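Every protein is a chain of amino acids, and every chain bends into a shape of its own. Below is the pair of lines this work produces for a single protein:
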Amino acid sequence: METLSSLLPIIIYILLIIFLIVAIIIGIKVIFALNKVDALVDDVTKKVHTLDRIFNVIDLASDKVTQVGEAIIGFFANKVGKLFKKKVKDMEEDEDE
């Protein structure tokens, strides 16, 4: 029993040292992997910023097309509205007589 009580702490210490070494190795590998991911994210960010100008031009063109479409629709809606107002006025005048 005495040998077991003196041998058990030694085994635990050896296992803790092995665990610590494995944790350090995994930590180093994680750091290298994060550096690679950081470089990849920086590269993607640069490429996205170059595409930003294209998206701004597309957005501007889309806004202009929308404004022209709204102006045309407004013009026709105004003409149709005036046409119906004339018909309603004519009907009211016919009813008054």
User: Anything to note?
Assistant: The mean pLDDT is 88. The radius of gyration is 39 Å.
